[in-house]
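User: We ran a pulldown and think these components assemble together. Before we commit to crystallization trials, I'd like a predicted model of the whole complex to look at. Sequences follow.
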Amino acid sequence: MVAHDAPAAAERGASATVRVWDPLLRVLHWSLAAAFLVAYVTGEEAEVLHEMAGYAVLVIVGVRALWGLVGPRHARFDDFVPTPTGLFAYVRGLLAGHAPRHLGHNPAGGAMTIAMLAMLVATAATGVLTLQGGEAFEELHEAAANAMLVLVIFHLAGVVLSSLLHGENLVTAMLTGRKRAPAAGERN
Amino acid sequence: MSYPKIVAGTLLAASVAVGTVAAAGAERLGLDPGALQFASEREYGEDESREDEEGMGKGPAMSIEAVLKALEEQGYSDVREVEREDGRFEVKARDAEGRWRELYLDGTTGKVLESERED
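Assistant: Here's a predicted model for the assembly, 307 residues in total across the polymer chains.
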């Protein structure tokens, strides 16, 4: 920040950050992370807990999808589901070292969000089928769960990379819901 | 309708569909102790479960021979009509007193779960 901006920023106080993630979205995010973690860890052991965690995942994804239709601006899928063109342009920029900051999900983050939600539904679906006597689905269920874990790892890597690139802590942002207000000319 | 909205709608529909199938299945499993037993077969011993897995997806977890042997050990004879249904076996056989019985067996252990008189 340049020196003559400092008083202005101090004057604005809390308004230097803006609300991006609404409370429901944050609760859904962290409970989904917890439910997947529990389901993954109990995959070979506690059946009741594993099933409950799986059903929780299903409910959370369903509510998130509904929130993606009717929720506030940055929760809406319209705000972040990228077009293939937009996604590739962003990734090309990222590789070239200039990825623009987005207040909501950037195109890669948006694509990852959709990929994870879809993979969770696929994992839950194959899990339900395995449970209902379709033992043939068991391997598919495990493959889906492992693919999901890989997506989670890429998601975390993306969060770290994006946080470093734009000098902000995106984990804190998902906890508080607030992010630094966009500078002039920045996309939001 | 925008393309992101279609993505959201698809995810919503898919999760509702899977939930419906799960609820319908849970109801069915709840009424069917044999199937529940089948679902929790991981609790069985290592050798047993490996044996089960060999027959998985291809048909009964227990072979008919194993079912006959299990019935004999439990005092039944003259086994007729062995059917597999929802992870359980349904058989007709004579009990130790020589009466005809309709039996429901656990699909992985061959244990008699229910016994009805067959007239």
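The first helix of chain A runs from residue 6 to 12. That may be worth checking against your pulldown data before setting up trials.

User: Thanks, that helps.
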